[in-house]
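User: Hey, quick favor. My workstation is busy. Could you predict this chain's structure for me?
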Amino acid sequence: MDKIKTSFMRKWTPLFVMGLAIIIIVLDTTLLNVSLGTIIRELNTNIQSLQWVIAAYSLTLAALTIVGGRFGDLFGRKKMFLVGAVIFAIGSFVASISNSVGMLIIGESIIEGIGAALMMPATASLLVSTYRGRDRAIALGVWGGMAAAGSAIGPVLGGYLTSHYSWRWGFRINIVVAGLLLLGSIVIKESRDREENPTIDWVGILLSSFGLLAGVFAIIESATFGWWNAKGIFTIMGHSISFGPLSVVPVAIAASIILLTAFYFWEQLVVKRGRTPLVNMKLFSNKQFTSGAVLTAILSIGQIGLIFGLPVFLQGVRGLDALHTGYALLPMSIALFVMAPLGGFIAHKFVPRHIVQVGVVINVIGLFLLHNAISVNATVNSLILPLLIYGAGMGLCYSQLSNISLSAVSVNEAGEASGVNSTLRQIGSSLGTAIIGSILIATLASSLGSGINNSNVISKENRTLVAKQVSAQSSAVEFGGKLHTSVPLTAEEQIEIKQISNSSTVKATRQALLSTVAFTILALLTTSQLPKSKHLDTSESMAATTRSR
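Assistant: No problem, here it is.
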């Protein structure tokens, strides 16, 4: 019995270590979402600055994850995992002692982001090299579920730590976990490519990094600067840059397209010269890999959009604090934890494509139920069943997608493929926050203005001014903040504005959920491109196919 237990622990400890790593990496993308008010007061800053802290972490991951995968291929995946864990711990320590937003950006967004970009692709590729067949399906299923659950756990853990201790403990815990990862890595075997003359594609790194940064920047900042006409002045390092009446957003989009196009042709040129590219474009001719990775990105848009939108309702309308906002999202986390491993265990009995399709359908059902449950008088209890259903669907999806994508490539291609897969996931997360967030805020501002203008309670001579001032404070409403006007308001008018704010927040949240439904339906259509085979352990044949082209 002891031998069986020892054998079991030795076999699955690498999965535990890799799963723990992916949880803390993804968790930090949502950890601060429910703690913004506390951090704003403590660091004497504003919501815009903290939005950049959160966004910059995802940007760093999106820009450098492919690079991290390539470094793992060349220098050893275990080695890069360990280096990444140390850097991640250093960044967490800097963030935990931050006394300004600038220091917080350096610690979490940059240093932590670099460490995460080294660890993330290494986790999946080490699992691919460690497990085979059904064990690989189970391992990647659990790993994928943990990645999805990490973003759902963030608000729960962040709310608990902020309410009982300090938001800084969210980063201090990372230091402890990083130490556990270093200890646990003892049981993990090294895996790397064997190249006679290993090279690093520095030009490809620069083109892809800045191309992705420009594109994600454009999407995130569209609400601030406008999609086409300039709504504000773009400044960088204290210097204002003007494009006339044109917003910086289309300029950034154009720069992104140019840089990523140049990256594509540069990678082709690198291959023709007989050198190793940062990303081999033949990877995208692999239908199984591409369909799985794209579907992961689309589902990430919906999931992150949901996690962004619900706290708006819970704090703005229901008046919940950080802790209870996190608790309200707990059913989704529980369902993810249960269904992701279960999906991995049943993968050998059903076609993975069918499991994903069932999961996406369950997602749509959960979102519609959640949409109908949102109202001014809705309670947290009324959201439990919809969140459980949605979380169960996400667990089924993520239990299969990593296996579908990474089983399509050889072990030697695993680092590169994992880097691309993780990059698309992070791009999806950034898009989710930007697109769903902009829809929510735009609907909120519009509803606030029209509600006040149509009110019979607010004095007629003040309606236009009050509507303008309240609409401009939609960000305050979004996080349950207080509204301020330059004209004195009666107690009756203040109650009326609060009621209008609540109904506007409900309308905006419901609109954001409908947008999430749209992306989830798009994901369902994309599942038609997934492989129909039950057995996905095809890495050797795929590698052979790639070599024969």
